[in-house]
Every structure is written in C-alpha cells, then in structure tokens.
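Re: the 212-residue chain
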Amino acid sequence: MDELIRIFGPFDENIKAICQAFDVKVVVDNGQSCILGEQPAVDKAMAVVGKLRSLLYSGDNIDVGRVNYMCECAKEDKLDEVDQLLNDVVAITSKGKPVKCKTVGQKKYVDLLKKKTITFGVGPAGTGKTYLAVAVAVNAFKAKQVDKIILTRPAVEAGEKLGFLPGDLQEKVNPYLRPLYDALQEMLGAETFAKMMERGTIEIAPLAYMRG
C-alpha cells in the first residue's frame, strides 16, 4: 500500500498525469489498482507505472515532472531509453546521495561533458545545466582526471558594473557564482569546499578577466 501511495504522489498528482496523458481511468480496491481504457493506452500506462516502480526500488524520488516525461517517452515508444538512467550515477554528494540524470537529454549532456573539451548547454532555468556540469567536474577531480576546478561565468550586470562592487575580485563575483557554490557545497560538503578554495584547488576566474 505504501508503494501505491508513493506512485500516486501527493494528492494523486502522478496518477492523474498518467490518466490524462493516455485517457485512462484508475480504480483502486482493497489496496489493488486497475487501469481501465483502450488496450494500447492501458499498455502504455502500465509500462509507465512499471518504470515508476523501478525508480522507487532504486531509491529515486518520483515527481510529476518525471511522470510527464515518462508519459511522453511512452507515447513515442521510447520508454526503454529511460532504463539507462536508472543505474547511471553521475556523482555522489557529500551526504552519499547518488546524482542521476532524469532525462535522456541530460544523459546526452553528461556524456558530452565527459568526452568533449568544450560543451555548450542551452536550455531554460532549472534543467540541470549548472548542477550536472559541477557534478561531472567534481567526479573528474575525485578520479584524479583533473588537478583543479576553475569556476568562470559571465558577470551578468544587474544595475551595477562589476568593477564598482565592493571587495576583492572573489567578493565581486560571488553573487554571480552562487549557483556554482551551492552545487559544489552539496557535492563536496561545506568544509571540504572551503579548504579547496583556500588551497586554490577551486579557482575563481571571471570571464571578463581571462586573457591569453
């Protein structure tokens, strides 16, 4: 019953998303669920539920965004591509939590980060571009594939010029690097992150100051 509750999600939002995606109905009786509708739609809905169960068994969380993504994959007969996401761990956080890709697009992005010298990630906010890039960088550092992590990004102005902000160079760019700091602290732990900053193992290099 607990598994059923977790699959259904808060206020049944997950199962409602599946019903809406495939135009099916779900009936629950004595802790057992039954999906009703046209057979092809029922098959796809059951396949999505099966993948959600696999996610639960692997220790992953389920949210309605992931459910909607799986429904779209099922409609395009690409649900099998989700299997490669279940066991592929990008990195381990300081608290022992595995970082995994949630979409096939994220998986391709991570693979390119590992293979290519320069990778451009384009997408809306909240799609994991910065977080996954940091995860790959930390994993490469722990594996001794790199000796240093350099943080650089454009200083996007918000009413003030970079040169007129108070403090030294690092203090000037700190507001612009906050997403990177947050991700690094989650991957390394606050204490390890601070020590690496002190030793220069993590270096700050604003794009506007990079020359040569």
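The first strand starts at residue 25 and ends at 29.
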